[in-house]
Amino acid sequence: MTGTARVPRVSIGLPVYNGVDYVGQSLDALLGQSFEDLEVVVSSNASTDGTDDLVRDYAARDPRVRFERLSTNLGAAANHDVVLRRARGELFKWASADDLYATDLVEQCVRLLDDHPDAVLAHSWTAAVDESGAVVQAHEYPLLTNSRRPSRRFRSMLRDGDHMPGAIRSDDFYGLVRADVLRRVRPHDSFYRADHVFVSELVLQGRFVQVPDWLYFRRHHGGRLSHDEATVRSWCASLDPRRADRLRNPTARLVGEMFTGYLGAVQRSPISAAEKRACVRHLASWAASRAGRRLGGADPGVPADEYDVVPQRRDLASRVVAGQGVGP
């Protein structure tokens, strides 16, 4: 693939803003994939650190890297859409400038989608790593997104895994997706939990399949958009700077749009009327349970510092990720 003009089968979109601390490690992991028929489309959201120069250096050395810089910061949601629109591949995955990827992640996900033509997304189990790349959490995938029933997949997306300790349950947003499916769903928005709504709309388009191994490593650090100390407003404003306006976007609106977003995802989905009704019932039950927990003063989630990892797995990322110093 390298050095040819042929359209790659896989496009990886990497939106970034001030990611100089980790983006080099992420690019090393992506460009070191065993599946080489890919491109990495990087869009800098008007970064002000050394991100742009670093990525330009990678692009000069590897023609699979395509780089552009936005003149103004559009927010993370719009930048995710930018890299998707620039992508050329049949299959697409978003990548975070913070994260690490096992050498065979893309290869195994491509194989799964080839083997399961009814599936729309393939991913692996997710582990959390700290600033140094040490694994601090590793759970098996807890969701039933491979069910044949769309309403069962939707319910599992809403509810399953809430009991699990630690920072993550799953991270299907960063899975490998059929690009034509991505382009027929509503783009990533900027209201509260917009990423959850987006993935829920995808799971109503078709099944998700999983590689039963930890091949994706989500990095947790204080500068990440989804860091635990982020407020509803700061999180939404990172997705779209216009959300910082309290008058136009009060918190009630940011949260309310989440519920209407879920409802719209169900209504637009290509499933039967009976399955849509089942999804709406699951959504209503879930919304009532969340409201009850908040009114009752219950903790809305498990603290992210309650990690759960087998000590022998702490060096897992260094053993399977390209550029981390130890070969697979």
TrEMBL record:
The keyword Kinase does not apply. Residues 11-155 form the Glycosyltransferase 2-like domain. The keyword Metal-binding does not apply. CDD domains: Glyco_tranf_GTA_type (cd00761). It comes from the Bacteria. It is an enzyme of class 2 (transferase). GO terms for molecular function: glycosyltransferase activity. Its EC number is 2.4.-.-. Keywords: Glycosyltransferase, Transferase. Pfam families: Glycos_transf_2. PANTHER family: GLYCOSYLTRANSFERASE, GLYCOSYLTRANSFERASE 2-LIKE DOMAIN-CONTAINING PROTEIN. This is Glycosyltransferase family A protein. It comes from Nocardioides cremeus.
